[in-house]
Design brief:
Pfam families: BRCT, PTCB-BRCT, RTT107_BRCT_5
Distance between the termini: 86 Å
CATH architecture of the largest domain: 3-Layer(aba) Sandwich
Number of domains: 5
Protein name: BRCT domain-containing protein
GO biological process, one term: DNA double-strand break attachment to nuclear envelope
Structural class: alpha/beta
Number of helices: 27
CATH topology of the largest domain: Rossmann fold
Radius of gyration: 32 Å
CATH superfamily of the largest domain: BRCT domain
Largest sheet: 5 strands, mixed
InterPro entries: BRCT_dom (IPR001357), BRCT_dom_sf (IPR036420), CellCycle_DNARepair_Reg (IPR053036)
Organism: Aureobasidium pullulans EXF-150
Amino acid sequence: MDEDRLFHGVSFTILPGTTITPEREEWYMHLLTKDGATFIPRRDDGSINNIAGHTHIITDDIDFPEYGRALEYNVHVVRPSWVISSHEKGRQTQPRQHSPDPSMFFREVIVSCADLPEGDKDAIIAGTLALGGLYSAPLTKLVTHVVSMDMHNDKCRTVEAKQLACKIVLPHWFDDCLKLGKLINEGPYLLPDPEILRATSDEPVRARSTPGLDGALSAVAGAPPAYNPPISPSDSRKQLAVFKDKKVLFSKDLNINDHLAKTLRHLVSQAGGALTTDVEECNVYIGHYRDGMDYVAASRAEKTVGNLSWFYNVINRNKWTNPLGKLLHYPVPRNGIPGFENTRISLSNYSGEARIYLENLCKEAGAEFTKTMKQDNTHLITAHTHSEKCDAAQEWNINIVNHLWLEESYAKCAIQSLTNKRYTHFPPRTNLSEIVGQTTIDFKKVQKLYFASNEKTIKDAEPGAKTPHPFRGAVKAPDTSPGKGVPQSSAATSKARSFADAPEPMDVDDQEDTSEFMPAPQTAKKRKTRVGSDAAMATPSMLRHKDGESTPPTTGRASKEKALTSLHALKDDVLLYDRERKRKGGVVHGGRRTAEPEEAPVTKPTVKGRNKRKSDDTADDHAEISETEIAGVKSKAKKAKTGTNDTEVLFTMMVTGDERWLGNMKKESAETAKLRALGIKLTAEPAECTLLCAPRILRTKKFIAALANSPSVVDIGFLDEALSTNILPDVDEHLLSDDEAEERLGFRMDAALERGEVNANRLLHGWTIFVTEKVSGKFDTYKEIISINGGTALLYKGRTNVIAGPRIPASEDPEAGPETENNGKEEELDKVYLISGTANEEVKLWEKFRQEARKKGCHGRVVKTDWLINLAMSQKVEWDEKWELKEETVPGWEEGRGK
């Protein structure tokens, strides 16, 4: 019976591409049709016929004009691997894993886990499934990646013994891919000898190829493709048919001269297309800027909109691509992206095409690009952090980001926040230039800012004004982009004006025909066309197509919504992945937090009755000890509302020094949900902490940093009681008391928390504190402590001119507040501090630091880490000679000086 055949009910077409040769196309067709599928031939021009009648489109990429409509009709767009996989398994496999959509970057991954903690395993599976991959519990021949921490397990031994063609990777690879939202090379993560764990891994990382930049280095087109007059029109169509039966409109803002106009006209004709000056009649609009009436009309009517660089690329490849797929293939904003006007950007560790592309993107975004980096630069974009520029940027407090920040700011039409850790993540032994150019235009953001169908007419379009002919000399389009000095909201509104009230364009025949860009006489139409006609204003559901199909009932561009709908069956995996991606630590450092919903920031309450505590130091080690999080307000005992996460957040709590959840992710998830029902939300961020829970006073980074937030500090009994009784305990009954630690460390917790409340995270306001690179605990540890107390931490490597000079007195500082009572007052104004260890590399920097301080009229002090720890825990700046470091106190320094 036909119903029993493998591909029964499948109606398909195949689009040729780089991997689909005519021979392969014929073979795929044979596999499908012999098992019951129906082949639907393409039209003569290569376009897809009757999209609504298809169930599958087989292609190796999504760069074909009908892709958006295919998603609207829920047609499966799959790679040829779907055919092969279905044929081998004897059943139709999941199309999602075979999607050519580059955003599903795990689509070729089939993962199997070997002896991983349950939480890490669940997170990896969720992320893989959500991004197009598959999971296999047993090790089969289809598995592409085995995830393991070492080779001492059965799966890894089997891979080695049988020499299977799968890769054994550390879970860090998945973690870094998910943090970046891109697929990076597995090489540095491969067992048995992963490069990221080698001792010599600080060497610069060699750049790899950048396949995402094919033909999209600049928005400014270079020389046009070579034009060779064909022997005959039929030969021309065989050679170049990418614009067959399409009408192309070139915008007036291209400022094209007559010679280039003639060349472009012949190229369009040779590619099977024709020119038009009517925006309603065109299929393709080519312009340079995102403004002007023709641009808005073409965009609203969902024409293909690209720039001249895209046009050249399509002609060169003789293959259709989506101009939204490359940032510099779409018209550029005339005055850049809002927020970039005051930025000065330099690049490091990018070379070749990647560097050219990022330079051009900086300029199109409206930033000032500098080849050399100086102290007045605002951003350094780097592919990895091993370079002199990166070292200098740390010393000069210049923002260090990867290229994703620039690309996504441009794609989303707004400068992105640097607090997003995707933009400051640099996987070890990975050169991020390999993923340059993979970001696509966010069409919804472009639509909202530049041509949303709202009220009023387009800016600068006066009633009765006529539109110049698109190729009549150097006529510039009206500037409707966000202008300098114009508030963003008003600039956006100016783009969103209705086209219904726009003036009539000039009749084409009212002009003297002297341009090579005029369509051939037989194609010119003698009619006046109102730009805001019904056709231009129609929604897609009102439009009709040449093949007689009507578009599906929809409003606007619905392709993304349809794509998400098609993934409805996997919504749980997607939601789980999203939680895993956002939480602290990612995949590698902990398990799932399934019970924490998104919460609004909680205002820190004032809790009366500070603590008598009980504590201990963890020596001088600053390692993080499994932290969790919560925020707080003093409250009376409260019964848990089980089964709901809608309970008001009373405390944002951070737990440190407790190992009850270590290695038991299921228990952690269950108890986190129980706490949330009591109004306690866990956090790992000191800046969010309003309730700190610890067994004693600890000298860990998280404990020390959290004190700047002046939280209530409770003992572990508070947590025990909450979990055992399902009732919120009284904070005052569990205040941490540790007299021995207070005496040893030289501060009182009660007084410190009161001072912290006065300081309001501004104890070190206006201070710049320098830290050596080799200091115990690492630079980032001290940077977090300094930052949460309002100061600036800079890495010191001996460069000159990094010390600004004495701080200004509080009486002259308009931003000074009550924290000045605790920060040393006038005695500290001319003091500048270097936190250092006693390694030879560090001691060599001490005298140079003091000399630089003297040049700036300051007194340089080189201090132990204890100086910072004391002021952060006591919330008061005090000086004691015991914290100062001097060369004569370093054992063996005289010998070390000569080495």
